[in-house]
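PROTEIN DESIGN WORKSHEET
SECTION A - STRUCTURE
LENGTH: 303
TOKENS:
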């Protein structure tokens, strides 16, 4: 998936690669990728005006400046720099000496002056390279995504409550009980946790598994299930397996398509019937909520 609005292209003519963390050369003020960020790597047009006491370390690729006291040659300064594991005699640009390195994460002051702060669109704060991802600074957008997800699930349960023919209030509560959120830090964490809890055929390779939430029929003594199936399987085959998991009788192979006792899988919150001939990977996606119900217990319009 291309994201042309993120990052910039390297200004080196024979590179032009898109870099999500572009670096501006302090001498020529052009933007380059990480590989060509240093003056010697992009044939900087302003390099001739720079102090000739600078030399580039081949190990860490940083610029090294020989100190005035003691008086060392660039080569001697480079040797001491290498002996210190690339920690001393680093060249500091004039405009970065007093640079504010504080990150928006409390206690962190690791903002690299050569890269600058990285803006997070989720919370509107600036961070260092280490804390730039939402998950590393507990970004409020993670909780907003989880809130929207929970709202969608509740909306699905509300629509199910309006379309299902429920005999009494106790049964109604059993059917429309929301499936609890598995995580508070986004769908990736939720999926990771679901993998340890979901029921399914252990012989299915992990890479081929599709993880789903399923609401059992109102006649079942089961509430909701976390399950996984082979994404290459058909919806009809999954329906048969779910009927067994929900402990209900499945007579689909003996009754007509219009029989009230026929079982169907409904996709929530749309409450649309899923074609039994479709493959899972074409019909649903990970963490979707499905309803298994008999046709006679679902009305075609909201009450």
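SECTION B - SEQUENCE
RESIDUE ASSIGNMENT:
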């Amino acid at each position: 998936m291309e994201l042309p609005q993120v990052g910039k292209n390297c200004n080196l003519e024979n590179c032009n690669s898109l870099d999500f963390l572009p670096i501006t050369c302090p001498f020529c003020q052009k933007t380059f990728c990480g590989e060509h960020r240093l003056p010697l790597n992009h044939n900087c047009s302003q390099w001739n005006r720079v102090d000739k006491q600078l030399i580039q370390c081949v190990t860490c690729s940083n610029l090294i400046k020989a100190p005035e006291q003691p008086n060392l040659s660039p080569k001697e300064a480079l040797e001491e720099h290498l002996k210190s594991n690339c920690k001393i005699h680093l060249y500091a640009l004039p405009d970065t000496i007093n640079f504010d390195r504080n990150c928006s994460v409390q206690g962190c002051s690791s903002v690299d002056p050569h890269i600058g702060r990285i803006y997070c669109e989720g919370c509107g704060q600036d961070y260092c390279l280490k804390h730039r991802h939402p998950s590393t600074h507990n970004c409020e957008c993670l909780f907003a995504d989880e809130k929207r997800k929970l709202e969608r699930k509740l909306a699905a349960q509300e629509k199910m409550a309006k379309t299902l023919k429920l005999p009494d209030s106790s049964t109604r509560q059993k059917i429309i009980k929301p499936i609890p959120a598995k995580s508070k830090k986004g769908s990736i964490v939720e999926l990771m946790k679901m993998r340890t809890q979901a029921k399914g055929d252990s012989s299915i390779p992990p890479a081929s598994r599709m993880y789903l939430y399923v609401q059992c029929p109102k006649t079942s003594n089961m509430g909701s299930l976390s399950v996984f199936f082979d994404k290459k399987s058909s919806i009809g085959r999954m329906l048969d397996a779910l009927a067994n998991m929900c402990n209900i009788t499945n007579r689909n192979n003996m009754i007509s398509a219009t029989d009230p006792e026929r079982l169907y899988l409904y996709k929530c919150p749309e409450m649309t019937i899923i074609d039994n001939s479709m493959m899972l990977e074409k019909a649903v996606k990970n963490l979707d909520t499905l309803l298994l119900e008999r046709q006679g217990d679902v009305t075609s319009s909201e009450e």
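SECTION C - NOTES
The mean pLDDT is 79.
The chain is about 20% helix and 15% strand.
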